[in-house]
Amino acid sequence: MKTLNDFNFNGKKALIRVDFNVPLNDEFQVTDDTRIKAAKPTIIKILEDGGSCVLMSHLGRPKGFQEEFSLRHIVKKVSEVIGVEVKFAGNCIGEEAEKAVAGLEDGEVLLLENLRFHEEEKLGDKNFAAQLAKHGDIYVNDAFGTAHRAHASTAIIAQNFPEKKCFGLLLAKEIESIAKVMETGEKPVTAVLGGAKVSSKITIIDNILDKIDHLIIGGGMTFTFIKAQGGSIGNSLVEDDKLDLAKEIMAEAKAKNVTIHLPVDSVIADAFANDANTKIVDVTKIPDDWMGLDAGPATQAKFAEVIAQSKTILWNGPLGVFEMPTFAKGTIALGDAIAEATKNGAFSLVGGGDSVAAVKQFGFESKVSYVSTGGGAMLESLEGKTLPGIAAILE
Ligand SMILES: Nc1ncnc2c1ncn2[C@@H]1O[C@H](COP(=O)(O)OP(=O)(O)OP(=O)(O)O)[C@@H](O)[C@H]1O
Ligand SMILES: O=C(O)[C@H](O)COP(=O)(O)O
């Protein structure tokens, strides 16, 4: 696996695919700079070697040129985070980009305009990739968040750099963290899967059952499993067409010696609202017209015990409707337990869109071993898929 450390960038231009697909507010200010900070070590290493950096990224899903998706909006933030004044080219290919690249000196950083202003990016167009490839001596892929896309700048472009391509430090760290859970993790390995639906996690479950010792199931997914076992779930979220599947998963887990831990109690509500009336009941005895929206205290304690005994922990998906404070306690309790286990030496990886949001919101970011910068990319990795952005460097 070739990484940044296999190259000396002195006098070289590094063409780096980063994932600066960051959220902006109405005033086009960056509201979460995690992905920019995450790309910093790679940029700094190249500058310290005596090279220069040409950064390319997408932002959002524009249709042709749309000013609101211009990467110009983030130049100031990137300069601030990197600590170097970042130059900008108003197009990622063509004369303007080529001129800006030609004028770039060692120690300087240039950001190119949104790759997706050209539809060729998403089409994985070879000619477009070749145009981009002109901008660098060495191609560095550091965009884990976009590694599941077989686009021109993330995968196809690598063909133009047969001997001169490598993973950036961030992408290497993401690959290593996933491997720590899926391949080399110290036992017992525990996966916590929460979130809304079984259907969106089924491929993950299928893939990880061979690799883990404990599977904690929480969140909205719970109720499909409880109903499959004959429990009463009232008005809770359920996928009736997945009841047989839930039974199959339980059987498969048993056959593979994986212990499944389901909630035992639930915080139920008479409406999907923060100020709804609530009660704590046995998760298998939810009255009609009530719905389970969070893990109850007995569940929190039970899950904490499993987590405390785990040496490797993967967390994807919240345990309740954490966006509403009334139903955030289960997710917070789980975060506390994972933080404690991490302090005691366990390796913990958090990934997936909403769990990362929850981890940041409740301040667990610095208390777990690693928080992935990938949403879809992380989920596809857990599903066991080979990500095109990673494969292109390894080929
Ligand atoms: N008991 C529940 N009933 C209904 N919704 C729930 C329940 N528990 C959790 N949720 C909701 O599930 C949503 C997250 O589900 P999702 O499957 O998208 O999570 P994720 O895996 O973290 O993120 P993603 O799949 O986007 O990467 C949250 O918005 C949360 O409110
Ligand atoms: O935020 C993400 O998940 C990545 O930047 C990929 O974006 P996309 O889903 O628009 O391809």
UniProtKB/TrEMBL annotation:
Signal peptide: none annotated. InterPro entries: Phosphoglycerate_kinase (IPR001576), Phosphoglycerate_kinase_N (IPR015824), Phosphoglycerate_kinase_sf (IPR036043). One of its GO terms (cellular component) is cytosol. (2R)-3-phosphoglycerate binds at residues 35, 116, 149. One of its GO terms (molecular function) is phosphoglycerate kinase activity. Keywords: ATP-binding, Cytoplasm, Glycolysis, Kinase, Nucleotide-binding, Transferase. ATP binds at residues 201, 292, 323, 352-355. It is found in: Cytoplasm. It catalyses: (2R)-3-phosphoglycerate + ATP = (2R)-3-phospho-glyceroyl phosphate + ADP. Pfam families: PGK. Substrate binds at residues 19-21, 35, 58-61, 116, 149. Its EC number is 2.7.2.3. Pathway: Carbohydrate degradation; glycolysis; pyruvate from D-glyceraldehyde 3-phosphate: step 2/5. GO terms for biological process: gluconeogenesis; glycolytic process. The keyword ATP-binding applies. Monomer. HAMAP family: Phosphoglyc_kinase (MF_00145). Belongs to the phosphoglycerate kinase family. This is Phosphoglycerate kinase. It comes from Kordia periserrulae. The gene is pgk.
